[in-house]
Design a protein that fits this description.
It contains 14 helices and 17 strands. It is α+β, with helices and mostly antiparallel strands. The chain folds into four domains: about 80 residues, no CATH class; about 90 residues, 2-Layer Sandwich (VC0802-like), CATH 3.30.2130; about 100 residues, Alpha-Beta Plaits, CATH 3.30.70; about 110 residues, Alpha-Beta Plaits (2-Layer Sandwich). The strands form three sheets. Strands 5, 8, 9, 10, 11, 12, 13, 14, 15, 16 and 17 form an eleven-stranded mixed beta sheet that branches. It has a four-stranded mixed beta sheet with strand order 2-1-3-4. Helix 3 runs antiparallel to helix 4 and helix 4 crosses helix 5. The longest helix has 21 residues. It binds zinc ion. It catalyses: uridine(55) in tRNA = pseudouridine(55) in tRNA; uridine(54) in tRNA = pseudouridine(54) in tRNA.
């Protein structure tokens, strides 16, 4: 049998424990742990070699090699008056005997944390990995599992025995259990919890995250309660685009993700929020890829704005109607003066799809702008001293001031 010949070839060179021998043949069989596989191979080799020895064949050297790592063979040789000392496993040096014990150190660290998924990550001594790689290369093993994989899997399996209702998730675990086999220390990392929702902003004095000028509060402040609900240490908000602090966000609202760092809870109801300034409606839990998509989407979204505009001079209805010429135009904008950036003259090109307007008094009109996300709408209206072109101010040939700005919808 090829398997036994190969196994014999290996143990002639390297003494291996049950786990390390079995792991080299990990893809053979089904539902077996590596140590079971390794032990079975050793048992079969033992039967074969003892049988051959009794038939008078010269297999003593093979019996000596096997006896170093297999007690029954060692006892057989003792019965013949040959004593063989037990050898440490060439690959793991005995490390794999009871890696399950580390699970015991992890369990107290998980107390009080309400989570659903976890994964195990271990730091394995470099020389163990190197020796394994040496054996694998020398015998051209293609059916094995890596030592690191086995350790992670076994500690995970042991943890599952004590954690009811939890499962291993390698892609997006709530918890990462770290076991350092060099120092023998275990630790637990609590991954951030991401909560998706939509907000409306009814105030012109609320900014996204930073307080400045006459801003009285921030969206970030208002969402502190979510961090508290999930027992997090910190929270960060990820918003799909942004509106100015003095612009309201109305209509169907803007998507937002609250990232709660190091929470102690990964499940449960997410309460909505409402005061005179902000309405936050949670949608559910989300993941990092969604956050990325959300931010990316802000660049291609179509937005509808409403602005209340004051003109320096009275305008006739005919004059105002010139605004229509800007529908479907491409707008070129250099970074607005009000925004301080490292590269102050970065160029931005955005589309204005549709415009609608309504005169309120000779100097005041209401303007609706349907445009590509990322357009600096205030600058599109007042022209920003020629840094945005074409602009409403340019087409009407008057100085304009934006009195109010609202985002009506994000499509
Ligand atoms: Zn071993």
């Amino acid at each position: 049998m090829e398997l036994l010949d190969r196994a014999l070839e290996i143990i002639r060179t390297y003494p291996l424990c049950d786990s390390c021998l079995g792991r080299l043949f990990a893809q053979m069989g089904y539902g077996l742990e590596n140590f079971e596989r390794g032990r079975a191979i050793k048992t079969l080799l033992h039967m074969k070699l003892v049988d051959e020895y009794r038939k008078g064949r010269d297999v003593l050297n093979d019996l000596l090699a096997l006896a170093k790592i297999h007690k029954p063979t060692s006892r057989f040789l003792t019965s013949l008056g040959i004593n063989v000392d037990e050898a440490a496993c060439y690959i793991c040096g005995g490390l794999l005997k009871d890696v399950e014990k580390y699970a015991k150190d992890v369990l107290p660290l998980l107390e009080g944390v309400e989570f659903r998924t976890f994964e195990v990550g271990t730091t394995v001594p470099k020389d163990v990995v190197e020796r394994e790689s040496e054996v694998v290369k020398r015998f051209l093993i293609t059916s094995g599992e890596s030592v690191k994989h086995e350790i992670n899997r076994r500690i995970g399996k042991e943890l599952l025995k004590h954690l009811t209702g939890k499962r291993v998730d390698k892609l997006r675990p709530n918890i990462v259990v770290r076991v350092d086999l060099i120092t023998g220390k275990a630790s637990v990392e609590r991954n951030p919890l991401l909560i998706e929702g939509v907000y409306l902003k009814l105030s012109r004095r609320v900014s996204q995250a930073k307080k400045f000028g006459d801003v009285k509060s921030t969206l970030w402040d208002k969402l502190v309660y979510i961090r508290e609900v999930f027992g997090g240490k910190e929270h960060v908000i990820h918003v799909s685009g942004r509106e100015d602090s003095d612009a309201r966000m109305l209509g169907t609202g803007r998507p937002l993700v609250v990232e709660v760092k190091q929470p102690i809870k990964y499940d449960g109801a997410i309460p909505p929020f409402r005061d005179g300034d902000i309405i936050f409606t949670p949608i559910g839990f989300t993941n990092r890829e969604e956050v990325r998509r959300l931010k990316e989407k802000a660049k291609t979204d179509i937005k509808l704005y409403r602005a209340l505009v004051l003109s320096e001079r009275p305008l006739t209805v005919e004059e105002l109607n010139k605004i229509g010429e800007l529908s479907g135009k491409t707008i070129i904008q250099y970074t607005p003066r009000r925004i301080k950036r490292i590269s102050p003259r970065k160029k931005r090109v955005r589309m204005v799809y549709e415009l609608a307007w309504r005169q309120i008094s000779p100097r005041v009109f209401e303007l609706y702008v349907r445009c590509q996300g990322g357009l600096y709408v205030k600058e599109f209206i007042h022209g920003d001293g020629g840094r945005t072109t074409p602009s409403v101010s340019e087409i009407l040939n008057t100085h304009l001031e934006v009195l109010e700005l609202d985002v009506l919808s994000v499509e």
